[in-house]
Amino acid sequence: MKNEPRILLLVEDNEGDAELTIEALKNNDIRSEIKVIKNGEEALQFLKLEGDYAHETLPDLILLDINLPKIDGKEVLHFVKNDEVLKKIPVVILTTSSLQKDIAYSYNNHANCYIVKPGNLKDFTTAINSIERFWIQCVTYPKNN
Amino acid sequence: MSYGTEILLVEDNASDAEMTIDALKQNNLANKLLHVKDGAAALDFIFAEGQYAGRPMENTLKVILLDLKMPKISGIQVLERIRTDERTKTIPVVVLTSSKEDPDIRKCYDLGVNSYVVKPVEFDEFQKAISDLGLYWMIVNQQPK
């Protein structure tokens, strides 16, 4: 498709969920490069292009879990949306939490959307496919983050 | 129909509006849709003013589909007003426009649009994009209460 995000950053500590997400995205034959980060601290390093991530390119789309080790997803979201350069990057919250306080926090801090991970495999795959169809195939991103 | 509205379609182009509503209808997503034709009417509805004065302000909207180039008040002005008001700042707004101009794309993401979709020119692609977009925002996404 015409305007796929070049780089998709998946911040997910659960290896099974990360694998399922990548597999579902790849089944849709997307061309985006998927980078996986397993905790909030490294996600912030990546987004600041610091340390091991100094030579990375900023992502066009972030899929962000909330419950993460070290620094949680809420803090990562807050950092992204308060940074003049990063705030343009759409953040899809992808989490097992359906707590209203987490949903409210996310929207109040400018998450672009909030997806509760379904518990069973079939619905999980459907949700990821839906993310793919909307965020990879439909959405247009700003150039040169 | 204004009570319990779940989708607010803000679109001045009659044929684009018709195609959008048709595509949503095919997925049974247009039952609680309200179509307004300019930015002023959109603001009246969202803030219960003018012809919508007295409408309960409790928010039932799952998504606002917002065109940019419109008479009277532009989509960017509507977005700005939504995002700067505590009562409405967390309502999901998807810009749906023919503008591929990067300054428009950047401005919308800067103002906190949830996503930016360029209307596909080709009929089948337009139908598919609206159908994917509708299913995503009406079924998969969790909005704040």
Molecular structure report:
The complex is a heterodimer of chains A (145) and B (145). With 145 residues, chain A is an alpha/beta fold. Chain A has helices at 15-27, 40-47, 73-81, 100-108, 121-138, and strands spanning 7-11, 33-37, 61-64, 91-95, 113-116. In chain A, strands 2-1-3-4-5 form a 5-stranded parallel beta sheet. In chain A, α1 crosses α5 and α2 packs parallel to α3 (73-81). The two termini of chain A are 20 Å apart. The mean pLDDT of chain A is 93. Chain B is α/β, with parallel strands linked by helices. Chain B has one domain (7-140): 3-Layer(aba) Sandwich (Rossmann fold). In chain B, 39% of the residues lie in helices and 14% in strands. Chain B is built from 5 helices and 5 strands. A 5-stranded parallel beta sheet of chain B has the order 2-1-3-4-5. In chain B, α1 (14-26) crosses α5 (123-140) and α2 (39-46) runs parallel beside α3 (75-83). The longest helix of chain B is centred in the last third of the chain and has 18 residues, at 123-140. Chain B is globular. In chain B, 39% of the residues are buried. The model of chain B has no long low-confidence stretch (mean pLDDT 94). At the A-B interface, α4, β5 and α5 of A face α4, β5 and α5 of B.
CATH class of chain A: Alpha Beta
Task: Predict the CATH topology of chain A.
Answer: Rossmann fold
Taking all residues together, what is the mean pLDDT of chain B?
A: 94
Beta-strand residue percentage of chain A: 15-25%
Major sheet of chain B: order of its strands? 2-1-3-4-5
Main sheet properties of chain B? 5 strands, parallel
